[in-house]
Amino acid sequence: MAEQNFDRHVTQIKQPITLKIATYNIHACIGGDGQFDPARIAAVLKEIDADIIALQEVEHHSIDELDLLEYLAYQTGHEAIAGPTLFRETRHYGNALLTKLPLKSFKHIDLSVAGFEPRGAIEATFDVAGYELQVITTHLGLKSAERRWQVKQLLDVKSQQEADISCLLGDVNEWLLWGRPLRWLHRHFSTPPHLATFPARWPLFALDRIWIAPQRCQIKLSVHKSVLAKQASDHLPLVANIAF
């Protein structure tokens, strides 16, 4: 009888759930050779094979009668969430999320500062076997004053959601490791390794970032450095493995 009770107890223990999350500035699918090649970006996304992929510099225009984001989603088997920040008569431009996970909700966050290129973020929540995962993806501004204000807004958004795991990721455009936006983010999330992702062929700068809270849930952080990834965009993808 004791053995039966023990066996029942063991079956009730949740096994760890692992996910792969990535961020990738696809540079409008223009590679280091100056060629527009969405198939090359799709192939890199397949190499990564992440559950959630944050994309920056996504242009929305037709590829074989499909919108570019729809094309990438179709090629990789993901669902797409668009987050354009720059609206034009043709070829809207901005952020996006690709996901294999069931989506609970999402919203767009305006991070634009007057006089500068419009910026924004996507906040999405996912149900992962009963756990709630919050994902915030963004592409921050080029000026330090922009980034300081934008990071404060993002930290406010993160603090308003009581998720089991929160992830903030994207291209933060912070060239200086001692810049205030990075210091604030590290103080809030803890400090992940500084892994260079730009420029893709000879990476020197850690412009692309992934922060996970609680930090103990992050089990690996790495740069995807395949031959194809070094050609497909001017950034390399950054990948995190997390465990619930």
From TrEMBL:
InterPro entries: Endo/exonu/phosph_ase_sf, Endo/exonuclease/phosphatase, GPI-anchor_lipid_remodeler. Gene3D superfamilies: Endonuclease/exonuclease/phosphatase. Keywords: Endonuclease, Hydrolase, Nuclease. Pfam families: Exo_endo_phos. GO terms for biological process: GPI anchor biosynthetic process. GO terms for cellular component: membrane. GO terms for molecular function: endonuclease activity. The keyword Nuclease applies. This is Endonuclease/Exonuclease/phosphatase. The lineage of its organism: Bacteria, Pseudomonadati, Pseudomonadota, Gammaproteobacteria, Thiotrichales.
